[in-house]
UniProtKB/TrEMBL annotation, chains A, B:
Gene Ontology terms for molecular function: hydrolase activity
Segments passing through the bilayer: none
Family: Belongs to the peptidase M20A family.
Stretches of the chain forming a coiled coil according to its record: none
Keyword set includes Glycoprotein: no
Signal peptide: none
Native organism: Paracoccus rhizosphaerae
Protein name: ArgE/DapE family deacylase
Keywords: Cobalt, Hydrolase, Metal-binding, Zinc
EC code: 3.4.-.-
Amino acid sequence: MSELSDRILAAVDANFEAQIELTQALIALPSKRDAEHEAQRFMADALAARGYAVEEVATDAKAISDHPGFSPISVDASTAPSIVATHHPRIEAGRSLILNGHIDVVPEGPHEMWTRHPFDPWRDGDWLYGRGSGDMKAGLIACVAALDALRSIGLQPAARIHVQSVVEEECTGNGALACMVAGYTAEAAIIPEPEDECLVRANCGVLWFEVAIAGKPVHVREAGIGANAIDAAARVTASLRKIEARWNAEAPAHPHFEHLDHPINFNVGRIEGGDWASTVAAWCRMQCRIAIYPGDDPAVRAAEIEGHLRQDLADDPYLSSNPPTVTWNGFFARGYVLEEGTEAEQTLVRAHQAAARAPLQTLTTPGYLDGRVFVIYGGMPCLVYGPLSEAIHGFDERVSLSSVRRITGAIALFIAEWCGLEAIDVDEA
Amino acid sequence: MSELSDRILAAVDANFEAQIELTQALIALPSKRDAEHEAQRFMADALAARGYAVEEVATDAKAISDHPGFSPISVDASTAPSIVATHHPRIEAGRSLILNGHIDVVPEGPHEMWTRHPFDPWRDGDWLYGRGSGDMKAGLIACVAALDALRSIGLQPAARIHVQSVVEEECTGNGALACMVAGYTAEAAIIPEPEDECLVRANCGVLWFEVAIAGKPVHVREAGIGANAIDAAARVTASLRKIEARWNAEAPAHPHFEHLDHPINFNVGRIEGGDWASTVAAWCRMQCRIAIYPGDDPAVRAAEIEGHLRQDLADDPYLSSNPPTVTWNGFFARGYVLEEGTEAEQTLVRAHQAAARAPLQTLTTPGYLDGRVFVIYGGMPCLVYGPLSEAIHGFDERVSLSSVRRITGAIALFIAEWCGLEAIDVDEA
């Protein structure tokens, strides 16, 4: 390891308590969907204070709805902007870079299931707890901290860098897409999602849809002549499990997925239906999610689901003549495979080895990643690589602080090699 | 038919348009659970205007919670009073009577499923439409109208009569129970529930319960290690269907139920669960209802359900160690059988024959009735007998106006024979 690398990692270490404090302050802002405004102001202020040129990028349906990466915007879509902070070097000498993280967090669920308040982050040994700690405020702040560490030893990237804090990663991916459509591109991107210090080689696409079922309510004394929409919903779920099984059986045909038992997960994440215990339920709605393989066209897979339901429910005494309504109301997003052996990847291999003293592993992940925007539509390598976490989307979500320190070091070293470094102008410093 | 009977039925006919108007005005007050206050003021005013002594009876948990007919009171229990209007004759000559109806209506469901607004009642041919038209505002007003008809020809009952407009019939039965505990009893009761002009010979008891399931939320990419509470809820429902089947198989052992295919209906009437399409659902709650046979002890049947779930879910990989929580949160009510051949029944047989020109049929109904309060705990015959209706608890609920006219006539004739009649004091008239 070079003497410069040592200095950079030492600077990351020296700044680390301040980095944790910044992370905790961000976790304390509950940036659930369409409630990211305050957290985005916090990010914009933090980035502007560091001298970056900060811009807001709205998720403007008009601007992106014709883009092939667009996901349908539903009524509860975020109205908060994405934030893009740009660093310009004095002399463009290296390769440009996007450091991207998402600000949105998923709902925290019943508070009584948490050990402490999910938006009052707390530390316990190596773990930092709180909703969004792992997914992915620690990673987002790691991008800022990597640059802070360089700055603390009088250095800055010798190339253009955009730090992006985007919305809508947990539901549509339209925030990252809007930033790209707005013109923010680079020669590589890093997204420090909580990937256990591995590099994501391949990931699934995701479709979101609502299944709505109208029942035929009657007094329960006449239950035989009514059709309970809640019961019918369970039959639709069972039918969708067949699609899930069929798509999982395709895994051997998909490189990077052939070794996975169950890459395609179907999930009913939310349900509501009916009005009264003694009334046969007149309606039921389910919010569903299913994965697709890289290369799959969301429109083709969506049509396959609709066709399957029509065919599979043809024998259902009620649903055959009262079919469920399927609405595509969120993610309509492709998966991607990261090409092997790019210079960006080789740079990360070296940076990770130096920071973590371990070889970089790769993995395939069956969840959505904004990486697809950069890889598929931006034509650049996107390195999704971030800290060890547990229970993201669950209770007592947490991120490993020692892991955050390692990946922050690796990102700082990546910047040093990829972008090159220059001395900060004395007037600026 | 006697000349008096003719006069009474003619008076019912003469008053009938006014009766429909009163019924419509009552339907227009959306008296869903804990929103009955305005409708009860309307009833109290209408009854006071007729000269009855009107009292409010609160559903006071302290007063009734030790009563064997008590059902658990949940947080959404009604705070509206029941209304009791009492007629005292000048001279007590006949037998006392309670005319009982419930003011509460069940939720109307999605408005777009109705032809017109559910609380803007409308007539089409013989049908009067609106939520609560059949169940049971037409019947409740029929009690008032039967007395009005007698009054219009200068007559009033020669015995004490209580007209009761009670709350909580659709969820606990505590409204009628509170009136009985408050001391209102009589030698017979009539409840004009929508029973297609039949007399209810037997009916089921009903249990309400909530099933709450805690899941183990994780990101859906790790769905295999999470347990989706919505999926688990469907497995609990399937298990409860086994209880339903077992109890239905007992029907041959229960007099008045032996000829019914499916007297025991289990219903999941409401469900909610989960927070996010891409999060394995952390929680799910179902509002359930099941029937029990007359003679069944609610506590014994409730214990049977809990024991069944423990045993039946013992092999479930998730629910065996994370059992559902069952909470008895409403009806905890016995069924009853109306003894055959009472004088009250014989009186109704004659009254119905005269008013409807058809013999009185009896039936067994698999739904809850407040009749159990009077029969089991009041020791009096309770004649549940009311008009033809369609789609109670459903969309476009409606009641047959010609049927309402017939049962109003029958009730008036019943009063004339059971209570006897006396001339209204000239000063009062």
